[in-house]
Design brief:
alpha/beta, DNAb Helicase, Chain A, 18 helices, two-stranded antiparallel sheet, single chain, 2 domains, about 450 residues, Rossmann fold
Length: about 450
């Protein structure tokens, strides 16, 4: 039933393009025994982030040398019958591919048995390993590469575009925001991580024309948008007239900002569906997820495993869609108040150290006098940067409460005093340090 299974998959992909990611997940063109169906599947993959149809697919295939008409493609929709068991049919396709791999391997190695002095033990060991690889779904034809296989990828990388926020010292230290990456943002309660990652960055990036998706399960979209109104007008929301609010909303509504409007716990499957659909429909470049523990589902002592699995899934989405994802993560309960959140302070710290490409930690000073100030200097710690174009260190930013915005700071910098219990700890003192010294992460 292998070819029929393949036709069922392709038929569903043509009939229900909005389900392309759910249907095609885990399948590769090599899994198809029919080269024609493999070509159609490859064309669907080529246009999976757009609104494809039979006409677009047919034109693409003809450009590749395949004479497949629109009518040929539409005819495949007849295989998209009711009662489609996605998991079973995917497994049938993969199982048939494994059989083909084994048959091809045996045929190509039978001649070894006829050679004088052939080592039966060596042949047996190779066959045993091949059987294990096939059972695991590994094809050595697809995973073994030569240096030349990466030439075009290196000379013309698809994910080389770095996008800058306008916060110069942060952009210089971070090296820009790169596609296919996952950035974790953390900090103490009320440090401003949600305002920075779920409101300020999306607002700033959308003003530069980059579509963003905000999925905050802790702050409703209207609350985030009120912050954006303040960013637009530069004054507290409560001080704005109705006319000024309408003026700000008119501007914000022109920006490519989109929301996942749900409060409470949501599963990874639902979250993935929303992200992939918004990417296809709106061309999303950035996604903000606030925060990690809202979409974890686990029982007993399985929290760490659930965190690691969620991080792997989210990272894979960024790579599949060629986007940048910001993930807000709360720390464990800290020993001291007003301390900088480090990597070891994060729940499931092992996975949170290894899987994300970047880790940012926001720290702001606390104290009674700070409540009377319209502006505060905050420190944005870059705890991890995987890409060679960035570096670890710290950046000083000014946060303006009236506009809920972050700005580049001058030479004045507030340095945290760690290890003292609040409220006994004094307010951090100002020092004159250059942006370069701060970015290096070295105190003097």
């Amino acid at each position: 039933m292998d070819k029929e299974s393949e036709q069922i998959i392709i038929g569903h992909l043509i009939r229900f393009p909005e389900m392309v990611f759910e249907i095609s997940e885990g399948i590769e063109p090599e899994d198809f025994s029919s080269s024609k169906l493999a070509a159609i599947f490859r064309a669907i993959q080529e246009h999976s982030t757009k609104r494809y149809d039979a006409i677009l697919l047919s034109n693409t295939l003809k450009g590749w040398g395949w004479d497949i008409s629109v009518f040929d493609l539409v005819a495949l929709e007849d295989f998209a019958f009711e009662g489609f068991d996605l998991g079973r049919i995917k497994e049938e396709i993969k199982s048939e591919r494994r059989k083909r791999d084994l048959i091809q391997y045996l045929k190509s190695n039978l001649q070894k048995l006829d050679q004088p002095g052939s080592d039966l033990t060596e042949i047996y060991n190779e066959l045993s390993q091949k059987l294990l690889d096939i059972e695991a779904g590994i094809s050595t034809d697809t995973i073994l590469k030569q240096p030349s296989d990466f030439r075009e990828q290196i000379l013309n990388p698809k994910n080389s575009r770095a996008i800058f926020t306008g916060l110069q010292e942060f952009d210089r230290l971070q090296g820009g925001l790169r596609q296919c990456e996952l950035t974790v943002v953390t900090g103490e309660t009320a440090s401003g991580k949600t305002t920075f990652a779920a409101a300020f960055l999306p607002y700033t990036l959308s003003q530069k024309g980059y579509p963003v998706l905000i999925a905050s399960f802790e702050m409703k979209p209207d609350s985030i948008q009120r912050k954006m109104v303040q960013m637009t007008m530069g004054r507290p929301f409560i001080d704005l007239s109705q006319s000024e609010k309408r003026q700000a909303l008119d501007l914000i509504e022109q920006l490519p900002i989109h929301y996942v409007d749900i409060y409470g716990q949501v599963g990874l499957k639902e979250l993935k569906s929303a992200i992939f659909k918004s990417h296809k429909q709106f061309g999303i470049d950035f996604v903000v997820l606030d925060h990690l523990h809202f979409f974890l589902r686990y029982s007993g002592d399985q929290e760490r495993q659930a965190i690691d699995q969620a991080l792997r899934d989210i990272k894979s989405w960024a790579m599949q869609l060629n986007i940048h994802i910001f993930l807000i993560v709360h720390p464990t309960k800290l020993t001291y108040d007003n301390s900088v959140v480090r990597l070891n302070d994060l729940k499931g710290s092992s996975g949170l150290k290894q899987i994300p490409d970047n880790v940012l930690s926001i720290w702001r000073p606390r104290g009674e006098d700070d409540l009377k100030k319209p502006q505060n200097e905050i420190i944005l710690y870059v705890l991890k940067v995987r890409d060679d174009s960035g570096d670890e260190g710290k950046v000083i930013l000014t946060f303006d409460k009236r506009s809920q915005s972050y700005f580049n700071s001058g030479l004045g910098v507030a340095m945290p005093t760690e290890g003292r219990r609040s409220p006994d700890s004094s307010s951090p003192s100002s020092r004159n340090l250059s942006g370069k010294d701060l970015a290096s992460g070295t105190d003097r």
